[in-house]
Prior knowledge:
The chain has twelve helices and 22 strands. By secondary structure, the chain is of the alpha+beta class. The strands form five sheets. Strands 1, 10, 14, 15, 16 and 17 form a six-stranded mixed β-sheet that branches. The protein has a five-stranded mixed β-sheet with strand order 20-19-18-21-22. The protein has a four-stranded antiparallel β-sheet with strand order 2-3-4-6.
Amino acid sequence: MNVIYEKNDARAATNQRVMKQISEAEKRCTPFPISCQQREGVWGIWMQSGDEYLLVNPIELVSSVFADDVYYLLEYYNKEFNGQKPKGYFYVDIRCEHHAYHWRLSHTTLASSGIRSFSIEEYLDKTKNAIDELYQAWSKNEPVAYADKTDVTIESLELCKKQMEIKAVLPSNYVLMNASVQEEVFQFHPIDDEWNEDYSIGIGNRAYKTTLTNWDNDLERIRHQLETYVYEREAELKLFFDMSETTVIIKKKSVLDQINESKGGCSYKYKDYALVEIRPNEFVNKPILKGYCNEKETIRTMYEGLLCHALRRPLEATSDIDLPTKMVAYNKIKSPLIEAFLKDEHVTDDACSIRQVHVEHVLTICPDYGQLYTDEEKLSGDLGLLYDKEGKPIQMDELEEWQWEINPIVVASATGRDYSKDWPDYHKRGWALSKQLRERLSTDFDLWYDCPWEDNSGTLKKKHLVL
Length: 467
């Protein structure tokens, strides 16, 4: 729950207590011994441990900023003992708690381990500086210690660099103010590939490609995980790639927006976001990504992306493997509960009782010459094939007239002639008409809206489900 009013003496007492805790925690901290430098002729991020310099994995280092876990981020570089490479490996249990980062450093060949603590501010500063300096050296084609490694690339390092620039998501001892938040766009888009399993995922300017393997993902389970957000305003989705999951954590986060002083105290106002965290699977070798996003648009993007992924399945079974076909997969994701949330409808007991609907056909309004929409088989159709909730034929002259406007555009494009169109106005009218059609259309149909091929204005970034 958010504090909406606080007396001055209570706030002062809280601040004094917390500042004392921070001071006591930082007294127990030691310098964080990492830096980017050139050693043995190569650039890398190194951690000094006594007389030794251990090579630091930058991806694991950045991920440790955001999630408590055991990390395998240290190794000897080009080291031999008695002519042999060292046996075993280092592992570090990293926790950010009680106003500091705590490392329990262990090695598989040693029985003992030790704990060191580092201040949050120094941990973040040295991590960011080391990442920036390594990226700069690598970009200049300087020799780097990671050149022969498959798990660290300059593309991954660039993601690390961009993620560390998002200050609002970095741990802090102080209250986050909305003025410091950069709202970003959550991304989840299926990508065409041979097996119809690839997708891109990311936040803002940080994204990468990975895979949602059909054989080890239960689409109904994923739908239930996303529906959890409607009740709890928190969801954790696990998207498997050959038994290794990409975890998408979405939490509603209220950020302090205004402080209004009044006699004897202060009142507070907040702005709500979806705080999104993407923890990558073991195959992509990318850092944890984290950012503040629009709540409704994040849930919509995830939901529409999953539905589009289902539509990539074959219409009929193609093998003996028990995988859902296109419409079965689509109906496993289809959720009246999520759609009620996206429409700002109050989730009542009656609404919850409609746990699932069965969609027979998926229509996409995408006007072409003589074509209003295509169905799930990518076959074109017209209004004469549709019916309303009472089973009666639908007639919408204004929608057909809107579709006819595209005919001369299609002819001009096909014959190489110039053409122009007020695409924002065209889509504004098309979207409004599509919503009118949706209100009348039987629940046997799902309805999507997409831009025609001839529209290269970028007005519509992707197709949307009409609710």
